[in-house]
Amino acid sequence: xxxxxxxxxxxxxxxLSQWDxxxxxxxxxxxxxxxxxxxxxxxxxxxxxxxxxxxxxxxVRIFEDSVGGAPHPHGHNTNLPGxxxxxxxxxxxxxxxxTVGGQSPQALVNEMAARIHVGAADCVLISGSEANxxxxxxxxxxxxxxxxxxxxxxxxxxxxxxxMLSREEIKHxxxxxxxxxxxxxxxxxxxxxxxxxxxxKAMAELFQPFTAxxxxxxxxxxxxxxxxxxxxxxxxxxxxxxxxxxKWFIAQDxxxxxxxxxxxxxxxxxxxxxxxxxxxxxxxxxxxxxDLISLRPRLDGSWAMQTAIGRALKQAxxxxxxxxxxxxxxxxxxxxxxxxxxxxxxxxxxxxxxTLTGGLPFFGGPGNNxxxxxxxEMAAKLRANPGDFGLxxxxxxxxxxxxxxxxxxxxxxxxxxxxxxxTPTEQVTLCEEDxxxxxxxxxxxxxxxxxNKGIAFIRLEDGRxxxxxxxxxxxxxxxxxxxPVGRKVAVTVDAEKARxxxxxx
Length: 505
Prior knowledge:
Blueprint: E1 7-16, H1 31-45, E2 56-59, H2 80-87, E3 94-97, H3 104-117, E4 123-131, H4 132-141, E5 156-157, H5 167-171, H6 177-191, H7 196-215, H8 228-232, E6 240-242, E7 245-246, E8 256-265, H9 266-272, E9 280-289, H10 303-316, E10 325-328, H11 333-343, H12 370-384, E11 389-396, E12 401-408, E13 435-447, E14 450-459, E15 465-470, H13 475-478, E16 488-494, E17 499-504
Parallel strand pairs: 2-3, 2-4, 3-5, 10-11, 15-17
Antiparallel strand pairs: 1-8, 1-9, 4-8, 6-7, 9-12, 11-12, 13-14, 13-16, 14-15, 16-17
């Protein structure tokens, strides 16, 4: 292992299964099998014999291990890094099971590149997967599948990381990713002066090109192009979930998808004869972690995205204009609206596509691992366009944790490891007593019986923020097409429940 060596991406692979239990147990995938298939594809893609050279395997955390006390209905693989190593005939010294978050794939690339640069690693395999489609299908069809497995090898379990939501947020019903992102979405809509229907059209205009990319991607779980009209119109196939979101504005996690990438030192690649046309270099990396959503000063954009993107571009000595290819995290439209704003990209008129996969609602949203597919597609795109530059943005939580990578086949003169996560210095103070203010943003959640709860952030004149649920009288106003953001409200706090309710005044 040589200190000061350049890290280089030399192999990528992906896997897909459409198995959903309707035809019995034969061919059922597991998270492990999808990782094994993708990892073997990455090894083959490198053009060299690398399995025996892998000294580190890092696995992106699966859904079932990302929530405390979550069940394992098909049995628990207690050592995914170890069983992956076993099944690809590798004997790494280091096995890592990464923490929670969609930023993980790019964050791991940044981290492992730094390890390679300082001589702490020579050849690293990063892999991840989800088999939620298989799990849901097996349970729906009464099919028994078995994911239980394990290995004796020791590994580093990084756990689930810090909580990304507070008791105050939970008390007011902000408990699902779509609810958090809907608050961002309606803040953006209000800033742009859009009604619900107008913003749904804007979201559809943003995502329609994503559907076209997904339709042509052989690894897409949902390869179908949709029209702007379909995406923007509530229907049985595109039902309301949390205002302003319809089903197909939301990342779809019912997928069987895996991905893998191999990163190694340039000198090791030289020694093993990795072809030059397989090599993709990391030119810059950036990372940032934001506060709890209720404490952020701004809700119509992302400080963390802006910071991580800025750091990565600065390190690569590039501007947005120098980037030919993007894969921007697209769990919800607001994530793309926020990242394009941070990049200074006009999403309506810029000819550069914003996704290489097709995006999380259409390509598929394999939990924490989506952006490893983005990295795999980026490597393929850059190999086909030597000298071009590409940027991958990976997002975790509710625009909470961001990791960015700038890539090219062009060999950099030097490499600088990404700095530690940047953290914000400004915070909003919460008001937990009766108060008056203006409605800052909101959402209405939907159940099987229709809309059922209004959630709002209220901004006080002194800058503080209150969280509150809509009263029976206020609720219908939130369902009007016109945005209620900016209207005056009064918040009354139930002392026993420590929960606020608001009325318009």
